[in-house]
Amino acid sequence: MRTALYVCSETLTALVNMGSFAVLIGALAAVYSQSVRTGFLVASFTFIATSLGFAYSAWRFHRPRSPA
User: What is the mean pLDDT of the chain?
Assistant: First the structure.
């Protein structure tokens, strides 16, 4: 349980990078569609998708392995 609550600097850096990527993609979508709402929805979806990908890779790295 101790390792599940521990947040290292690399994790925080990854979250900041995912957030900045989401803002960039959302801004491009807003410029392309000329709608702030569309840009916000795209940015939200991008952040959720990258967060899920990061969570999956962290789970694969830290999951218990069988001794076989």
Answer: 86
Residue 66: its pLDDT value, please? 73
Question: Which residues are within 8 A (CB) of 46 and not within 5 positions of it... i.e. 6 or more apart?
Answer: 21, 22, 25, 26
Task: Please provide the size of the chain in residues.
Answer: 68
DSSP character string of 1-68? -HHHH---HHHHHHHHHHHHHHHHHHHHHHHHHT-HHHHHHHHHHHHHHHHHHHHHHHHHHHS-----
0.90 exceeded by the pTM? no
- What is the token pair recorded at 31? 């410029």
CB within 8 A of 26, min separation 6: which ones? 39, 40, 42, 43, 44, 46
